[in-house]
């Protein structure tokens, strides 16, 4: 039950955010119907690019760890910022740009290792199918307001958009 609820809320919110990110720059949206093979990589790039990934992931250190010259002792609880990791210039060239063809894309949106999201394959599939259908059925889709006017849902760790006015 937890997987269903967690997976529904996050994916439903990500659909709106992903479409808004793609429509914010018209050339992004228009590249996708012209090259449908980009849908897969565009979804992963939207997942990486989204800065609204919640508070962060808490981890309890079972051994001393050095981070950027600072020693974090065993027994410390740390909060890892996935948005910061997903914009790391040492891992992602042009990290602050949305590169629809980015591959490989080792983003940490779904976590990693033993803490990786169990539903990530389903989430990717749902996002890819939704984007593919929108591109085929509504290729002229566009935002009615600027991206800066969109309001996020407040109070949720992984929120979405309150509204996203569009026309086609």
Automatic annotation (TrEMBL):
InterPro entries: Cyt_P450, Cyt_P450_B, Cyt_P450_CS, Cyt_P450_sf. Belongs to the cytochrome P450 family. Keywords: Heme, Iron, Metal-binding, Monooxygenase, Oxidoreductase. Gene3D superfamilies: Cytochrome P450 (1.10.630.10). It holds the Pfam family p450. It comes from Streptomyces machairae. The keyword Cell inner membrane does not apply. This is Cytochrome P450.
